[in-house]
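Loading example: each entry is read as three labelled lines plus one structure line.
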Amino acid sequence: MTRIFALPDVGEGLTEAEIVRWHVAPGDTVTLNQIIVEIETAKAAVELPSPYAGVVSELLAEPGGTVAVGSPLIAIDTGESAVEPAAAGVIGEEGPGGRITTLVGYGPRTTTVARRPRKPVVTDPAADDRESVPLAKPPVRKLAKELGIDLSTVLGSGTGGVITREDVRRAAAAPTGNGAGFSAGAVPGTGQRREPVRGVRKATAAAVVSSAFTAPHVTMFLTVDVTPMMQLRVRLANQAEFRGVKLTPLTFAARAACLAIRRTPEVNASWQEETGEIVYFDYVHLGIAAATPRGLVVPKIHHADRMPLRELAVALDELATTARDGHTAPADMLGGTITITNIGVFGIDTGTPILNPGESAILALGAIRERPWVVDGALVPRQICQLALSVDHRVVDGAQGSRFLTDIGALLSDPALALTF
Amino acid sequence: MAGSAGFQTITLAKGLNQGIRAAMEADPKVIVMGEDVGKLGGVFRITDGLQKDFGEQRVLDTPLGESGIIGTAVGLALRGYRPVCEIQFDGFVFPAFDQIVTQLARFHYRSQGKLRMPVVVRVPYGGGIGAVEHHSESPESYFAHTPGLKVVSCANAVDAYWMIQQAIACDDPVIFFEPKRRYWEKAALDLTATPPPLFSSRLVRSGTAATVVAYGPMVRTVLDAAAVAEQDGQQLEVIDLRTLSPLDLAPVFVSVRRTGRLICVSEAPGEASLIGDLAARVSQECFYSLEAPVLRVTGFDTPYPPAKCEEDYLPDLDRILDAVDRVLRY
Amino acid sequence: MPSRKRAPSRSAPAAEPVGDPTVGGPTVRPIVGTAMEIDGPHDPQQVIAGLRATSEGEDLVQLLTPEGQRVSHPRFDLEISAAQIQSLYRDMVLVRRADREANVLQRQGQLGLWAPLLGQEAAQIGAGRAMSPQDMAFPSYREHGVAWCRGVDPTELFGIFRGIDQGSWDPVRTGFQLYSIVVGSQGLHATGYAMGQRLDGKIGNGETSEATICFFGDGASSQGDVHEAFVWAAVYDAPVVFFCQNNQWAISASLDRQTRVPLYRRARGYGFPGIRVDGNDVLAVYAVTRWALRECRSGNGPVLIEACTYRMDAHTTSDDPTRYRLADELEEWKLKDPLERVRVHLVREGLAEPEFFNGVADAADELARRLRDYCTSMPVPGPERIFSKIYAEPSPSLQAARADYLAYHASFAEGDH
């Protein structure tokens, strides 16, 4: 078979050599190790011995020419039968990889010019790298800082929940300033508008769900004739002390609740699952459910029980305004012990309110309407209001809840009874 | 060989040779010293022809002793000479390590500037030439870690020609690393060009997908990888560090702020290497620009293996492009 | 050359004043035994000429002339049988043939590099055969002849030069350490090993005592580590023979680039005996080395031997000696060929029959064939070799890196690249 001898690296790291003189010609017989050619490299003049014995079939390089290491020099017909090349290939000839099979004597290797093919199954190394999804990548953090966006209030739309630049920009463009922006999510052509749940709405939803599915709710209803309370309201409004003070049915209901708590303290308590305790508060931090453009918020009036009617009225008024404007102080959002929700302003008669998490009672104040009522055996139109009380049945039993509700009802239907509380 | 319009195509080895010659012609105090550098012209022929033209007083064949070479060079420098020392191979620099670190690096500081060490220590380094033990090392981190030394590495023939002259002209001790596997690679040299400052890194390829930083023998490998990446539609930006101490990171910062992704490549084992320091500096300076962590592609934390294993050891095209893939997945 | 019997432990250094003739003027005159007095005036050219004339002089121990004539020596006369001389000759022929075959294999790309010992066969066989089984040899990277004597087959050397390993034989079993490519570093290793032999009480027990022999060249004698080895060996009376093969060249640096004094005389400066031998005379080398090892065995070490020989080929296959040395020097040394003088002696004295020479030639051919077959079919190490046995105690981070690397390697479609 014909064997090709390629130019080896005869000195550390050489890449080419010049052919000086051939010692053999095509047709010559050569023996193993016979000197066949003289070459000159950058470092030395070298004589190369033949690695094969046989007959020279072809000289593959010209004298005076420069040959790169690994290039074919001479073809020798060894007279052997063709042998299956070993797995590593024959020196100087093309190996299985399509490159000239090289050994340690062939000097600096050229950098491969293509990526080697991979086996089909490749795990995603990026997935292994990341143990947790980051809040946001550094450039997005920087953008958020520049735009004054608190990343903790932004929901990420990137893979795995990562906050993207677009999320931050959207948050910055939202109409209200507390970061719980809404997305303009009308999807053309589908008849759908998508609104991501975030911020206040998200918090409220979470609270409601937590409360509804933790505390066993029992709701009691009482329909009350509040005509005397409404008359008192008119009378007080004309007094100097109450000039400029907004007196509403809610004011009276709040005052009534504070008084009624004295007789039924169980409604002003909290079931503590972690410690296995019920905490009874000797103060009343009254939460008033308020509807705002942002959603439902429940700001608190701290120590409402200490406030006489006028002070309570002022506090309620301020609270409502502040909440509507979205400026409720964070401290005023915390620490409530009982809540009143005024569904009457929406024209609703009554409902089944859900407890504020951590509290044991919530009073729903319904709309006040003129309805037929029986007074001294006669059917007369009176100002009628429905009260609904939901209690945490772990803390408040039926008797306690009923007493609390009837006490409120009594105070609203006969305010003079307040003297007895 | 003359090319067109004043361009010469030369090998990196020839670039060094001509650069040393030019420096010797310009300043009679420049002397060359090392084992086999005179009559033989150096085992890689870097100093070929210099002793013949400048004589034995300026090109010294030294006894066989690396500590002796550097130690006597320190003495000659104190005497006003500008020695250009050759350490024959990277693996043999260690007998000289004491003289380099405790003396060469410290004379200026010790004397508060009264004494200078305008010494160049040339070291052929790196693997990929199929050699026996101790001839394929990458010890540059030890020297970059030593205050008082300056450390550079050329990656191509043009840089070789200019940088060796600038290093010789520098009044500080310069450890000059030469990528021996690239000694025979050619480039076109324009003798009329103005070279960049010695201690500056350079953008050698513009791109957008990621920045790849390398030096010495790996620059060529990275450029080859970038050519392959281009076929896949990824444009890599490549920076040749050139100076290892002091680092010139300004171009790297500019680039990373644009691409957001950085890969650092070197042959040397990664553990406690200068590549690690570089990665930390960029992470700190460009934190808000980083879309992905800084990745490093380096030699393994093993002794340099026997020659038949070196292809598996050295960072190659596949490992570099794997790192590019990873960094783009973030 | 002065020879001194010394007790195993000495507390005081030599009593002779060794002043520095260049400092303090004529009042500080050395008495006896300095290079200046013996070699005449301190003229650099004459000193260099003196260095070059290494094959002459009374101080050069020789037992067989280049012409194959036995000569006697007052201290080192050797009783040696014809069979032993034949054996030494055979060793040298085979070692030379192996060396030549390896050189050719390198030219053909089967080895990346080869460090030829051509011309130094007698120095290495003579020293190697003088060793006892319990001795330890510390080679540089050219002592293929000593390896042969210690039972390391030439094929075991190929791994280094083919790039497959960094020394594959067992140094403990063979008493022949791995090659040392950092020039001169083995000097301190040999000295330390010899110190260990003394600490273990392995000397002073006659022929069963141990000794160490360290091989290095003229170039290595300039390395600081070698000088420190001399200091340590002297101060600790280490049982080590420093065997310097002065082959006149360290790549392109001739001997005068390494020293101003014949190398064997350096030993005096450190406080132990130095002796110069005709390195191309296998009988003289054998005799002198045997004596030196016995000195060490009896506790009178260290000893420095300078074997004057010549590097007939290049430093390694990457070197071109025509660039720095003249052809006539080579021709001069061809006349001092180590093998030829023994062959002539055997023939002239009728100490060997033609069958012997034919047998040796056949053995050489067979050896060459075996080495070629072996070399051309050496396996390629697997990828795990990179991480193999870096430490005695495994390192978890390296194990993790190794696993990552092997997984990466296995992820490619084809096995090889």
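The longest helix of chain A spans residues 309-325.
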